[in-house]
C-alpha cells in the first residue's frame, strides 16, 4: 500500500470514529428534559455540526492563509475534542449501569443529564490543569558502564512540545526558562517538537536557539514530524542548533553514548521497515548507552542490546483520564518509570500536549535526571 493510500485509510478511520462519537452523544442527549422544547433540537444539531467541523476547518483556513480565523477555530475544535471525550465517557458509564437505558428507566434521563454536567465540570478542571506550567520532576538514574568522571551529570528530558498555533512562542519562552534555570549538562527532546506544520514554528527559532547545554541539545523525530513533513521538521531542528539522531549513536562524553531512532509509530504507519535498533546501536562506542525513541516500543530488544536507559514520550500518559486505559492497549509503557529486563525506561507524559489544552490528572512534565554509575 502506498504512503498516500495509508494516509487516506488513517484519515477515513479517524473521521468515522469522530462522527460516531458525535452521533452517540447526540442520540443520548436527544430525549433529555428540555431538549424537546421548540428550537432546541435544531440548535443542538447546528452546534454539533459546527463543533465537529471546527478543528479540520481551522486547519484548512490556516493553509489557505486565513491564519487568525483558522487558529481560532482550531482552538475551539481542540477544546471540543476534550469536552466530547469526557461527555462520551460519562454517558457510556451511565449506559453500562442502566443496561443501555432499559434498567431503572425513570432515573435514566436524570442520570444522563447528571453525566453531562459532570463531564463539563471535569472539562473545566482539565482545562485549568492543562494551562499550568509543566511540573519539573527530578530522578537519579544509575547506569552500568558509566565512568566515575560522569557521575552527577544532569540530563533534561523534554518530549511532545507540539509547537504550533495552540502552544506558541510565549509558552515556549517559559519552557526554555524552566530548563535553563536548572543548568543541565545535556538536553534531550524525544520527538513531536512540531505539531502539524513546521511553518508555525519558524518564528520560534530564536527561542529554540536559546535552549543550550554544555554537551548539546539532542533530538529525535516523533510521528508529528512525519505528519508535518519530515525533512522540513528536521531542518528546523538543525537550524535551532539541535543535533538530530536518526538511527545512529554518538559518544557525547567519555563513556556516555547517546543513540536515537526515527519514530517507530510513523514507521509502522508509513510501512518503513528495517532493523531500526541494529542501525542505531550496532558498532556504537563503548560505554553506558541512553536510547532516545519517541514511541516506547522495542524496549525488550533495546535491553538485550545493552541499552541502560531508554527515554520516550508519545503517549502523553493518556493526557485526559481515562483515555490512558485505551492508550495502554497499544502502548503498555504508558507513562512513568519502568524496568524492562534490567534496563530502565522513562516514558514522559509530555511537556506540551496535543489537541485540547486539557490534562485531567496527567500534568505535563519536564524530567531532570542525575546520572550515577551503577553500584
Quick rundown:
Helix 1 (3-29) runs antiparallel to helix 2 and helix 2 packs across helix 3.
CATH class of the largest domain: Alpha Beta
The ordered H/E elements are: HHHHEEHEHEHHEEEHHEHEHEEE
What is the CATH fold-level name of the largest domain? Purple Acid Phosphatase, chain A, domain 2
What is the radius of gyration computed over CA atoms, rounded to a whole number of angstroms? 22 Å
CATH homologous superfamily grouping of the largest domain: Metallo-dependent phosphatases
Number of domains: 2
Unreliable stretches (pLDDT < 50, length at least 5) are: none
Q: Largest beta sheet: what is the strand line-up?
A: 1-12-2-3-4-5
For the record, the CATH architecture of the largest domain stands as 4-Layer Sandwich
Distance separating the two termini = 50 Å
Number of strands: 12
Mean pLDDT: 95
Q: How would you describe this protein?
A:
The chain has 375 residues and is α/β, with parallel strands linked by helices. The chain has two domains: 3-130, no CATH class; 135-373, Metallo-dependent phosphatases (Purple Acid Phosphatase, chain A, domain 2, 4-Layer Sandwich), CATH 3.60.21.10. Helix content is 44%, strand content 17%. The protein is built from twelve helices and twelve strands. It has a six-stranded mixed beta sheet, with helices on one face. A six-stranded mixed beta sheet has the order 6-7-8-9-11-10. The longest helix has 31 residues, at 67-97. The termini are far apart.
Amino acid at each position: 500500500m502506498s504512503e498516500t493510500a495509508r494516509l487516506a485509510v488513517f484519515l477515513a478511520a479517524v473521521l468515522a470514529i469522530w462522527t460516531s462519537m458525535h452521533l452517540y452523544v447526540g442520540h443520548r442527549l436527544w430525549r433529555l428534559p428540555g431538549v424537546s422544547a421548540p428550537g432546541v433540537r435544531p440548535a443542538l444539531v447546528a452546534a454539533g455540526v459546527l463543533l465537529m467541523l471546527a478543528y479540520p476547518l481551522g486547519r484548512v483556513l490556516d493553509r489557505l492563509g486565513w491564519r487568525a480565523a483558522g487558529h481560532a477555530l482550531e482552538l475551539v475544535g481542540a477544546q471540543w475534542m476534550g469536552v466530547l471525550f469526557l461527555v462520551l465517557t460519562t454517558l457510556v458509564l451511565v449506559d453500562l449501569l442502566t443496561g443501555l437505558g432499559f434498567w431503572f428507566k425513570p432515573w435514566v434521563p436524570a442520570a444522563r443529564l447528571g453525566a453531562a454536567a459532570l463531564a463539563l465540570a471535569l472539562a473545566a478542571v482539565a482545562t485549568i490543569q492543562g494551562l499550568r506550567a509543566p511540573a519539573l520532576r527530578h530522578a537519579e538514574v544509575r547506569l552500568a558502564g558509566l565512568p566515575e568522571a560522569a557521575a552527577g551529570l544532569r540530563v533534561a528530558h523534554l518530549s511532545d512540545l507540539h509547537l504550533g498555533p495552540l502552544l506558541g512562542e510565549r509558552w515556549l519562552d517559559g519552557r526554555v526558562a524552566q530548563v535553563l534555570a536548572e543548568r543541565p549538562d545535556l538536553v534531550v527532546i524525544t520527538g513531536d517538537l512540531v505539531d502539524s506544520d513546521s511553518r508555525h514554528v519558524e518564528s520560534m527559532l530564536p527561542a529554540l536557539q536559546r535552549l543550550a547545554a554544555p554537551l548539546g541539545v539532542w533530538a529525535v523525530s516523533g510521528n508529528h514530524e512525519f505528519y508535518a513533513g519530515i525533512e522540513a521538521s528536521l531542518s528546523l531542528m538543525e537550524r535551532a542548533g539541535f543535533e538530530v539522531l536518526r538511527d545512529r549513536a554518538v559518544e557525547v562524553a567519555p563513556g556516555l553514548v547517546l543513540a536515537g531512532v526515527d519514530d517507530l509509530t510513523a514507521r509502522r504507519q508509513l510501512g518503513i521497515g528495517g532493523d531500526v535498533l541494529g542501525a542505531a546501536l550496532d558498532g556504537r562506542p563503548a560505554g553506558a548507552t541512553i536510547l532516545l525513541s519517541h514511541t516506547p516500543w522495542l524496549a525488550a530488544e533495546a535491553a538485550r542490546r545493552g541499552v541502560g536507559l531508554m527515554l520516550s514520550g508519545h503517549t502523553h500518559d493518556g493526557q485526559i483520564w481515562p483515555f490512558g486505559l485505551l492508550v495502554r492497549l497499544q502502548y503498555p509503557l504508558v507513562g512513568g518509570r519502568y524496568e524492562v529486563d534490567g534496563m530502565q525506561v522513562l516514558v514522559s507524559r509530555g511537556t506540551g500536549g496535543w489537541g485540547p489544552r486539557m490534562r485531567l490528572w496527567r500534568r505535563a512534565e519536564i524530567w531532570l535526571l542525575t546520572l550515577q554509575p551503577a553500584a
